[in-house]
Automatic annotation (TrEMBL):
SUPFAM superfamilies recorded: lambda repressor-like DNA-binding domains, Periplasmic binding protein-like I
One Pfam match: LacI
Xref: PROSITE patterns: HTH_LACI_2
InterPro entries in alphabetical order: HTH_LacI, LacI/GalR-like_sensor, Lambda_DNA-bd_dom_sf, Peripla_BP_I
Protein source organism: Streptomyces candidus
Biased composition (Low complexity): 334-345
Highest taxon in the source lineage: Bacteria
Keywords carried by this UniProt record: DNA-binding, Transcription, Transcription regulation
Residue stretches making up the HTH lacI-type domain: 10-64
Protein name: DNA-binding LacI/PurR family transcriptional regulator
Disordered, as annotated region: 325-345
Length: 345
């Protein structure tokens, strides 16, 4: 990947000279004004990226170019994002704060993290956004170094151990995962499985580690963890594989509500009664959990409020009043009809 280290000695004149254009053309390109062709604009941006140069933010404000737009790039398939209640609630929370401030959200779906980095660089250098919300952090996330070098004001949604010094808003997923295991163990379950999100995602790894540690602490069989995507069909496939084991689990914890609903359908397909034969527990409570039969027990937190807090924190970062991380309430257990003591055999 191209180095993004900033070099203070670089000026707009250096960018113009390297791109073979006037200083005015560079200004037009970065202020998103007419007067330069798309090809020239892209050449200017490419040179600026290579040299590690960006217009000084205070100069943009003096020029009256404040855009009042917040950027959010999400590396998820469009179909899945539209189905996932978490992101719909999260986005509605962000929008509730942006509406109060007459600000807008610029949302883009990307295929991979390299595309996400390039997109944020384009948005920031082109004065299209004032700041960004960063989501779905990985261990040693490759976005951290280039976006910090860019000087992009951003709030990270994730545990501070994952977010590389960006101000973050986070929930204690480790404690919540441990609570889920202890609750199922208290009901009498000894064979508890977990269907998690992609292993590369930091929050999935945090939950997986806490699940395994709590199972070991309680002397339970904690080897049944399946990492998969967040789609319903992937949750169904993982559930089916777990239920075909000779010593199948009597309880399964899922990393989202869509997979848990799919798991309930698989249990019915295989002739298992919920919760007598199999208890199911979802993460991220939603209306979907309450509409299934029986309704799904879930680890609940106010996702709308969470999104609103992320947006408020970002405004604090932009105006210089917030630099640290903020822990919001830990997801708590909401028991419903899908969990109960295992049937005696």
């Amino acid at each position: 990947m191209t180095s993004h280290a900033a070099t203070p000695r670089i000026t707009i004149n250096d960018v113009a000279a390297r791109a073979g254009v006037s200083k005015g053309a560079v200004s037009l390109a970065f202020n998103n004004r007419p007067g330069v062709s798309p090809a020239t604009r892209e050449r200017i941006f490419a040179v600026a990226r290579e040299l590690g140069w960006a217009p000084h933010r205070s100069a943009r404000s003096l020029a009256g170019r404040r855009v009042d737009i917040i950027g959010l790039a999400v590396c998820r398939p469009a179909r899945l994002l539209g189905l996932e209640p978490f992101y719909m609630e999260f986005l509605s929370g962000i929008e509730s704060v942006l509406t109060e401030r007459s600000c807008s959200l610029l949302l883009r779906l990307v295929r991979d993290l390299d595309e996400e980095i390039a997109l944020y660089e384009e948005w920031w250098r082109g004065t299209m956004i004032d700041g960004a919300v960063l989501v779905d952090f990985h261990r040693e996330d490759p976005r951290i170094a280039p976006l910090r070098a860019l000087g992009l004001p951003a709030v990270a949604v994730g545990h501070p151990s994952l977010t590389g010094g960006f101000p973050s808003v986070w929930t204690d997923d480790a404690s919540a995962a441990a609570d889920a295991v202890r609750y199922l163990a208290a009901l009498g379950h000894r064979r508890i499985a977990r269907v998690g999100g992609p292993a590369g995602l930091g929050h999935s790894r945090i939950r997986a580690d806490a699940f395994e540690a709590t199972m070991a602490e309680l002397g339970l069989d904690g080897r049944r963890q399946v990492a998969t995507g967040f789609a319903g069909e992937e949750g169904a496939r993982a559930t089916r594989a777990l239920l075909m084991l000779p010593d199948r689990p009597t309880a399964i914890v899922y990393d989202n509500d869509i997979m848990a609903v799919a798991g309930a359908a698989v249990a019915s397909e295989m002739g298992l009664a919920v919760p007598d034969d199999l208890s199911l527990l979802a993460w991220d409570d939603s209306q979907l959990c309450r509409l299934t039969h029986p309704p799904l027990s879930a680890m609940s937190h106010d996702v709308h409020r969470f999104g609103a807090q992320v947006a408020r924190t970002l405004f604090g970062v932009i105006n210089g009043s917030h630099t640290g991380s903020l822990q919001v309430p830990t997801p708590s257990l909401t028991p419903r009809g899908s969990t109960g003591p295992p049937r005696r055999r």
